[in-house]
Request: fold
Amino acid sequence: MPKNILGREIPEFIEGYGKTQPFMGASARKPEGNRAGPKLRATFSDRTSKLVPDLKAAIAASGLKSGMTVSFHHHLRNGDYVVNAVIDACAEMGIRDLTLFPTALFGVHKKLIEHIKSGVIRRIMGSVNGPIGQMVSEGGMDVPVVLRSHGGRPRAVVSGDVKIDVAFIAAPTADAYGNICGSQGKSACGSLGYAFTDAMYADCVVAVTDNLVPFPAAPVSIPQYYVDIVAVMDSIGDPAGIVSGTTRITRDPLRLLISKYASRLIEASPYFKDGISFQTGAGGISLAVTAFMKEAMKKRGVRGSFGLGGITGYFVDLLKEGYVEKLMDVQSFDLEAVKSIAENPNHIEISADWYANPWNAGTAVNMLDVVILGATEMDRDFNVNVNTEADGALLHGIGGHQDTAAGAKLTIISQPLLRGRIPCVVDKVYSVTTPGEVVDALVTEYGVTINPRRQDLIDACKEAGNVPLVSMDELIARAHEMCGPSDPVETEDRIIGVIEWRDGTVIDVVRQLKKK
Amino acid sequence: MRLRRTMLYLPGNNPNMLLRGHLFAPDGLILDLEDAVAVREKDAARILVRDVLKRGEFGSCEVTVRINGLDTEYWRKDLEMLVPLGRLDGVRAPKVDDAATVRRLDEALSEIEEKAGIEVGRTKIFCLLETAKGIFNTYDIATASPRVAAVIPGGEDLTADLRTNRSPEGTELEGIRRSVIVAARAAGVDALDTVFPRITDDEGLKRETEFIKQLGFDGKSVIHPNQIPIIHEVFTPSEKEIERAQKIVAAAKEAAERGLGAVQVDGRMVDAPVVKRALFTLTRAGLLEEGTEHA
Reply:
């Protein structure tokens, strides 16, 4: 079987996916041809309202038929009502064999399992986790899922790899002519970054809102000229699941220790100077790193330029206090972030295309100095797996992992060495999500492990004198000693998941788990 | 001079914490077989602690075990299984009431050390004073054996015995802390303060640590790793203190080389005790190797 550059066996053709392009290196593939585009449509002055009575009317008007592709954004996260409601309505209307193309799915969407079983959904292109992930891993879908990063997804759309027939856009606020705003309304979610590409490239765009306001709605995230239909639901989501309250910094001592080491690594690096930009996300470790970095910036009088990615109240404070000049927000995680994006012109809403698509004229991650990311496993070659768990089941989406790692000058993976008795370092990762060529360091409670190709960072840490360095070999030996060997995952030959690199090449495949 | 600013309790039945406690870099570790372990888990915890001691990876921490009380059936088994490994720096004995208890422990330790062929006297004793009687006998306890390294007033048990409870201000412990300091200094052992139980109250911990440091305590027992940096910061000397200590040590060195007994620094007489304190300041600041001997 042919292998890609990382030695992963990738068949030339995968049933239900098609012909594959093997991964050739992080920036090896160059695009050809022109952007794809949606169907042309004309609207004249005889149509001044796009409002339809309900979801079913919207689906009917959209022309959605069996076998088509429908897309959704995940800004309402675990509070989302829209995906389930639309698919329920499709099922009732007898529509089947849909390809579901979400930007991500959450626990709240486990209801989709019944629609997968009954054939309403035939295929998922997007991350599957929790119960759906388990079902897919055990062979519960006929067609493999396709995992793409936040940048890889818009790339697939603009290049024509994926054609969206109907995009359903949950809209916290909208007017009857289709102007959509994310930062206002009872279901406000802040940035609508992940929905932009779908709005621009789908053949039909349906805004689904629970806060219909008089025309023109303002401020506008997605403007009227992309939106074909407006439908109203009583509620598009549960606010408690959409945004979290104040995001707090972890008090877990192990995570704090890891954060301290990560922060020292950043401080020792050549990027810790005026104009530094960073993305740290909302995880426990990430937020604590940001707190430690803030202290260091204060102490050394360093001023940053921008914070990127998913934005929390903690980042909003950094903006207010002048530690960064701008926030580039593709996803707002908490109420403070939602409030800030509505009020502060230096808090900028950006699309996933702007954020991370490798195939445009320049994406935000390219300007990034430092990113802190997680992992389920990492291997001797610094390849990272975020998609599958130790038992081989699909568990997490890629998110912006590949994109920020590829873009940032310093990519740090922070993770405790052990979760229970499962180590985060292994000889060879079960699946590759992000290749070692774009990963610079791993930080665990035992210290900082730097990719040997970054001798400059190793030297900088030695000079700083307060960064405990530990080699990958030592770390793996320690993990072996503490946990003993793990049984290999037993699989069938059948491929149930395809992991694309952000440029559309196949970096790895995931096979069906053997029945126990 | 061993730094004992922080000694971290690790539950003897929790492998995760036993293996990783040293990563938080406290000055000492207390592998706890007493209160942290339920009676039915005593044997399992002892075996676990044995295996962790055998592994022997504790960074630069002083390693101690809190054994079960001398009024229980477990304490001797604790010693017999763990002391012969030769890895323990000391044992922390709960509810020490009088000098006789210390002597019993001393004898048992000597017997076990001798039988195991390790240096007799190697295992130090840390005495937890958890009753009014124990506090009353502090000096006798501290001088009952050359093994005694420190006395530690208890918190909850002690206040219960005093028929009061612990308040945020620590009113009930104030007189006790002062008397323990005097007895410890008179006996030449360390005085270590009790734990601060409110693990999320960083400000309260800082205030209490500043207070006990001013009283003269050498450190505190710690029940959560997040407390360590806060206590270390309080105990870390200021730039000014370090500068003065360096001056004193330099002057003393010069005086010794020239055969002089005492010298003046900034118009103050510098004699042996002042030099000793200056050396201690530098040790706390991490500027002097631990255990460095000076004339």
Q: What stands out?
A: Chain A has a mean pLDDT of 95. The interface with chain B takes residues 251, 253-254, 256-257, 418, 445-446, 482 of chain A (CB under 8 Å). Residues 150 and 400 of chain A are 5 Å apart (CA to CA).
